[in-house]
User: What shape does this take?
Amino acid sequence: MFAFNYILLALSGIWPPEGLPPALLGVYVVLSTVAHAFFFYSCGAYTVGFLNCDDVDLAMGAACDVLVVYLTCYKIFVLLKNKRVINGLVYSLRHELNVSYAPLQRACRDHEEAVNNLASKVTGRYYLVLLSVDATYIFMYFRAELRGQVRIPMWDPFGARVSTGLPFLLYSCVPVSAALMSGIHTTVFDTMILTFSLLLGAKIDNLTRLLVTLEEDTGPRPAAEVRAERQRRLREAVIIHQKIIRFVDNLERALSSLSLAQLMESLATICLQGYRLTAAPPSMDEGIPMINFLLWLLLQLWILCWSGENIATKSKHLAVVAARSHWADAGHAFHVNMQMLMLRAQRPLALTGFKMVRLNYSTYVDIVKNSYSLYTCMLRMQSKNRSEKPNRSPEMSELP
Ligand SMILES: *[C@@H]1O[C@H](CO)[C@@H](O)[C@H](O)[C@H]1NC(C)=O
Ligand SMILES: *[C@@H]1O[C@H](CO)[C@@H](O)[C@H](O)[C@H]1NC(C)=O
Ligand SMILES: *[C@@H]1O[C@H](CO)[C@@H](O)[C@H](O)[C@H]1NC(C)=O
Ligand SMILES: *[C@@H]1O[C@H](CO)[C@@H](O)[C@H](O)[C@H]1NC(C)=O
Assistant: This one.
């Protein structure tokens, strides 16, 4: 469980794998420091490149890169800061939310295992997508550099771009590290939220199933025994439900600011990247990675929104099941417990972007739509600017 995420986190260079011998840990820290040094340097290089850029169209594209690298810095910061909360979440998924009602235990575990395998498979595929996006970027970047077609502005104080050999390689590490780092951190975040959503969804499913069993006939047994047994099961359901609510709260605490950052990144980059592709058409070598990146952004935004929608749907179902049931012969304590659970289930669980936006399909549509209108707005402004210029120059030449 979470094996893939931990591998990715380890690759990202901020979460060393657990139980590493000191010598390897030292190597890890050194490598990670070097990689991050390049990455932080690239933030500066992109920023200065952006500030020194005279062409408005190119600057828009450069703004996109600057935004992505700074949001990546923010992600690194939040992931490091919330390391303990995230570890706690993984722990409680593993050990605290099990249904222990004997007749269901086996089936619940099977279901959870199946979901777990699904999560690993999806994560693995997503990882491959990241790999192909980054590999294309790196390959195309070198091709463009060698042909002298790079148009992305970048600060180059040592004049290393035009040189050959080692200086050029060091210089190339800057954009490459920016691409790798932002890709890996985004992927880590996405797959983490996806895995949490899938596994928590399985837990909610089976909690719902446990509630359904409350209504089922438990065979020819004395009424008092049936009632006591049912009461025990309900108490378990209430406890699990409470833990699930706490789990979602912690998940929100750890990741909701990242969700908002991710939504904003998607909103801004979809329109800026689209603008860059149409207004300042890059060479083929730069264009293909940009299109790749755009498609990848749409995919990752979808994953984020799907994760939120998944949890919201399942918790709504739970509320419906809780509200639909009726127990005529249950005791007073049972009713009190049930009412408590129903009350809590009234407010569906949701993942949000910093409590401001809910993650669901309509958010996905909204973001893509808004991004598109921003993009058309920018294009219109640009074409107005273009059409104004030729008109003005003949007038000026006629004046004398
Ligand atoms: C909960 O279930 C998982 C498997 O789904 C199992 O590995 C774990 O030991 C269980 N924890 C408890 C406390 O039963
Ligand atoms: C857990 O939920 C899943 C999905 O609804 C279901 O297929 C599985 O049978 C459930 N487990 C039990 C024990 O009901
Ligand atoms: C989706 O989220 C938005 C707010 O971001 C909310 O207004 C809307 O009701 C949500 N849709 C569903 C189906 O929950
Ligand atoms: C319009 O074109 C001029 C000259 O090229 C430039 O200085 C200005 O920033 C442009 N405005 C916009 C909104 O693109």
